[in-house]
Amino acid sequence: MYGLRSGLVFVVLLGMIVALPARSAAQVPDSTEGSILNYRYRTGDGKAAPYVATPQPVVDSMLALAGVTSEDVVYDLGSGDGRIPIAAAKTYGARGVGIEIDSALVTKARTNAKEAGVSGRVAFRRADLFEVDISEATVVTLYLLPAANLKLRSKLLQELEPGTRVVAHDFHMEEWSPITTKKVGSSLIFLWRIPEELPDFVEQEK
Q1: What domains are there in the chain, each with its CATH number?
Q2: What is the DSSP letter of 20?
Q3: Residue 113: its pLDDT value, please?
Q4: What pLDDT does residue 51 have?
Q5: What is the DSSP letter of 162?
Q6: Neighbour tally for 183: CB within 10 Å
Q7: pLDDT tens, 121-142?
Q8: Which helix (H) or strand (E) holds 193?
Q9: Top-confidence residue, 91 or 24
Q10: Helix, strand, coil tally for the chain in percent (to 5)
Q11: Are 111 and 118 in contact (CB under 8 A)?
Q12: How far is Cα 199 from Cα 194, in angstroms, rounded to an integer?
């Protein structure tokens, strides 16, 4: 009798386990909803810069934190629909450059710039953000996956002039500590300045 009862309990428990929904990488915490990290988990996309639009309040805060002025050249690496270069031009009179690998998004960004009346102050290029020359930038903005940020660190530090500001949405760069961190809603913004001397980890990555 005891053996029969144990067998029934086992069958019931097995049925409950089978009935539970399988948890996969697509099921991420609500705190990442709408973020670039959630996009990667939902699609399994391993690209450096999948297109997830930065919320406008975060765009505005990134440019403000960087202290953008009309003297700046703002490069957005992985520029999507162009909202960051467009805002830099429209709000601050800066020159904006967007680097984007998706040709459809480059076309959309150019249309958006024209509609915003700033097409003369912004340019959008279809290019690989890891290969493009960024040396003229005085401000660089990023909304990339963590691995892409780390891959870009040495490029940023070696190609940009000392004092250039780098602003990233949501993801930091490990050993390269930001000088300022700001929370905007559920997002984090990190600010760095290119130092006079290269950090030790740059030499180690060569």
Answers
A1: 56-205 (3.40.50.150)
A2: S
A3: 98
A4: 76
A5: T
A6: 9
A7: 999 999 999 999 999 999 999 9
A8: strand 187-193
A9: 91
A10: 40, 20, 40
A11: no
A12: 10
Q: Strand 180-184 and strand 165-169: pairing?
A: unpaired
Q: Give the pLDDT confidence of 6-17 residue by residue, as tens digits.
A: 444 443 344 443
Cα 15–chain centre separation: 43
User: Which candidate, 188, 190, 163, 161, places its Cα nearest to that of 174?
Assistant: 190
Counting Cα atoms < 13 Å in the Cβ hemisphere of 31 gives: 4
Query: Distance between alpha carbon 30 and the CA centroid of its chain, in Å?
Result: 18
Q: What is the pTM of this model?
A: 0.76
Residue indicated by tokens 């130092």: 195
Q: In the sheet that 139-142 helps form, which strands lie side by side, from edge to edge?
A: 122-126, 95-100, 73-77, 139-142, 165-169, 187-193, 180-184
First-to-final CA distance of the chain: 71
User: If we measure between CA atoms, which residue out of 42, 38, 81, 44 comes closest to residue 59?
Assistant: 81
The two structure tokens encoding residue 103: 């040709």
Q: CA neighbours within 13 Å on the CB side: how many for 154? A: 10
Q: Reduce the DSSP state of residue 205 to 3 states and report it.
A: helix
**How far is Cα 165 from Cα 138, in angstroms, rounded to an integer?**
6
Q: Angle at CA 126, nearest 5°, toward 125 and 127?
A: 100
Helix (H) or strand (E) holding 149: helix 146-159
Give the β-pairing of 187-193 and 180-184. antiparallel
